[in-house]
């Protein structure tokens, strides 16, 4: 098993230690053993969601091969199917051989993937997977890459990030022309889909499954956890919207229909990300050559 302690894993449980000091804390009785176990379980939970996201990407990309209306996009999507299969394999092996445990799919991620797969329109599959879920993956991989010192995990994340940036960049390229042709209710539907997906992904950091495995009531723990957002959670949220907002702007979704999506992102306090590098530029930085 990979050793996970201070500086070795992604989360050293620092914010949970702070919760221990609060009045009525569900973890007030924890000692070093429990905090170390939390760090192990937290890493396993994060890696499990990576695995499930890649499994969803594998299914969605196969759907794109079937439904996208032009042949060049089918050719590209078929190569992405191979990428996603490789990612599924590597995260499955990391969980089974290094962490020796898995967690089920997070409800927020599962609901988003179900929505993508249940819609027969090719552009919704593209928008949901190539822009939103792959953008989520880049944010999650990037925040873990920056905060972990575990060498094997850091190396495999670097390789996967290069693939994911390429996938998002192709999604933006494919959808930009298509979305220039739509307006009215069709455009608003895509804007609402993006916003709802972003909220789901932003709120996925409550770790109910981890608390249950550790014998702590999620209902009692979550209010404390929300108040004590850790640095990596805030980093993830910043990176998530730094991926999504510029790509939405490039697709014309940010300002279409009188700027509805711009107003929603302004209310969330993330509109300042609109001029960050979009993923087509980021791909050049992440390319492995």
Strand content: under 5%
Radius of gyration: 19 Å
Average pLDDT: 86
CATH topology: Ferritin
CATH superfamily: Ferritin, core subunit, four-helix bundle
| Oligomerization state | single chain
> How does the major sheet shape up?
none
Task: Give a written overview of the molecule.
- By secondary structure, this protein is mostly helical.
- The chain has one domain (14-286): Ferritin (Up-down Bundle).
- Helices cover 75% and strands 0% of the residues.
- The chain contains twelve helices and no strands.
- Helix 2 (32-67) runs parallel beside helix 4 (107-118), helix 5 runs parallel beside helix 7 (184-202) and helix 7 (184-202) packs antiparallel against helix 10.
- It is globular and about 60 Å long.
- The protein starts with 13 loop residues before the first helix and ends with a helix.
- 40% of the residues are buried.
List keywords for this structure.
289 residues, mainly alpha, Ferritin, 12 helices, globular
Put the structure in a nutshell.
By secondary structure, the protein is mainly α. Helices cover 75% and strands 0% of the residues. The protein contains 12 helices and no strands.
């Amino acid at each position: 098993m990979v050793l996970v302690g201070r500086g070795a894993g992604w989360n050293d449980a620092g914010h949970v230690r702070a919760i221990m000091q609060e009045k009525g804390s569900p973890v007030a009785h924890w000692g070093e053993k429990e905090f170390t176990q939390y760090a192990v379980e937290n890493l396993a939970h994060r890696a499990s969601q990576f695995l499930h996201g890649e499994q969803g990407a594998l299914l969605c990309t196969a759907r794109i091969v079937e439904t996208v209306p032009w042949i060049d996009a089918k050719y590209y999507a078929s190569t992405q199917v191979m990428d996603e299969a490789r990612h599924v394999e590597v995260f499955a092996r990391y969980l089974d051989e290094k962490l020796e445990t898995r967690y089920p799919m997070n409800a927020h991620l599962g609901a988003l993937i179900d929505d993508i797969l249940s819609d027969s329109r090719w552009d919704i599959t593209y928008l949901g997977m190539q822009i939103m879920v792959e953008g989520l993956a880049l944010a999650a991989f990037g925040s873990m890459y920056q905060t972990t010192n575990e060498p094997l995990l850091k190396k495999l994340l670097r390789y996967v990030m290069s693939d994911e940036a390429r996938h998002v960049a192709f999604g933006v390229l494919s959808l930009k022309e298509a979305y220039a042709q739509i307006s009215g209710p069709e455009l608003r539907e895509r804007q609402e889909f993006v916003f709802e997906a972003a909220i789901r992904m932003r709120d996925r950091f409550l770790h109910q499954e981890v608390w249950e495995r550790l014998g702590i009531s999620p209902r009692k723990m979550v209010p404390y956890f929300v108040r004590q957002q850790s640095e990596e959670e805030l980093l993830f949220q910043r990176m998530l919207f730094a991926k999504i907002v510029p790509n939405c702007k490039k697709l014309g979704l940010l300002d279409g229909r009188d700027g509805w999506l711009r107003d929603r992102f302004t209310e969330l306090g993330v509109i300042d990300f609109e001029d960050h590098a979009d993923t087509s530029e980021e791909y050049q930085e992440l390319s492995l050559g």
